[in-house]
Amino acid sequence: MTDHNHITRGFTSGCPACEPHLRGFEARRRVEPKAPNLSGFPEVQHRIEDGRFICPGDEHSRCHQYPGCDGEHDFWPCGCEYVSHKECWIKPWIDASALIDSYGGDEHAHLLLDDDFPDGDATTTWEYEYMLWDYAEPRPEARKS
Fold first, then answer.
1. What does the domain layout of the chain look like in residue ranges?
2. Do 73 and 80 meet the contact criterion of CB atoms below 8 Å apart?
3. Among 12, 27, 50, 131, whose CB has the most other CB atoms within 10 angstroms?
């Protein structure tokens, strides 16, 4: 068995433990297709309302424009043509877990009870494997448990 340290030496070619990581690293290094220019589509202000992530947009909003291939590819943008969809592409990512699990703000995370988020405008960040959201404006301290 090959003896190596992933942190200080990096991946070792031929190591069965490293090969899956090496393949993922090589895939991420490749040049990804450019996303189309969506500046002609208006941005919408996403919100948290009654403990839910809300997208007030419609099929003309920027967050409703994404490839018509419906996730057949490992990367986004994938080079496929963007089309208008009824659903915001961000919402299913946030709805896939409890709000607390996708909350990116650290300042009050320990004070917020699951599904006990105050209403307010939200921002989102795409982290390539998941979405994070945070309040657009600093929030007053939430209820302490």
1. 32-135
2. yes
3. 131
Which of 103, 123, 122, 121 has the alpha carbon at shortest distance from 112?
Answer: 103
More confident residue, 14 or 54: 54
**101-106 long-range Cβ contacts below 8 angstroms, 24+ apart:** 102/130, 102/131, 102/132, 102/133, 103/132, 103/133, 103/134, 104/132, 104/133, 104/134, 105/134, 105/135, 105/139
CB contact set of 83 (below 8 Å; sequence gap of 6+): 65, 66, 67, 68
The proportion of the chain whose per-residue pLDDT surpasses 70, expressed as a percent, equals: 61
Answer yes or no: is pLDDT of 143 > 90.
no
Q: Is the pLDDT of residue 8 over 50?
A: no
97-110 pLDDT, tens digit per residue, is 888 888 887 665 55
This prediction has a pTM of: 0.66
Q: Indicate if the alpha-carbon torsion angle 108, 113, 119, 125 is positive or negative.
A: positive
Structure tokens at 105: 């703000």
